[in-house]
Specification:
Layout (H helix, E strand, L loop, with lengths): L1 H19 L3 E7 L7 E7 L3 E7 L6 E5 L8 E8 L5 E9 L11 E7 L2 E5 L7 E4 L2 E2 L1
Parallel strand pairs: 1-7
Antiparallel strand pairs: 1-4, 2-3, 2-5, 5-6, 6-10, 7-8, 8-9
Length: 136
């Protein structure tokens, strides 16, 4: 009986918090160069957003979502750019830590630039280069 009460309590807590919880955001920016297109393909365990393209300095592509509990929410995106998309990187753009309480309002900003891939967790902080492009 105690196990059933625990499961019900966790379920009520999760759904209650998830409704009040601000969605997490992953933002993708193309800061390569004028005329250069960023191709990207983002997917999670539950969603495959397909292959898309983002023009230079276009409105960022945004993924909004709640963490899934008890599964770890994870989003991966493959970024491709250059002649014949000859430069690429498969990035884990978001990963929730193991927890019973979901994260709320998390931000992950990823920017593709000619010299690499940049990252920030807050809008008011500078993007920092974290990855170099792989040559295919």
């Amino acid at each position: 009986m105690n196990h059933s009460v625990f499961v019900i309590l966790i379920t009520i807590t999760y759904f209650g918090l998830n409704q009040a919880c601000k969605k997490n955001i992953v933002e993708i920016l193309n800061q390569l160069a004028p005329g250069q297109i960023l191709e990207y393909h983002c997917r999670s365990e539950d969603d495959n957003l397909g292959v898309k393209q983002l023009n230079f300095n276009a409105t960022p592509f945004v993924i909004r979502f709640h963490d899934e509990i008890p599964n770890l929410t994870r989003w991966n995106c493959i970024f491709r750019q250059g002649p014949n998309n000859s430069y690429s990187y498969d990035i884990e753009v978001y990963k929730a830590g193991p927890r019973l309480i979901p994260r709320c309002g998390q931000l992950r900003v990823w920017a593709a630039r000619i010299d690499g891939i940049y990252f920030a967790r807050k809008y008011n902080t500078p993007l920092v280069r974290v990855l170099s492009w792989n040559k295919n």
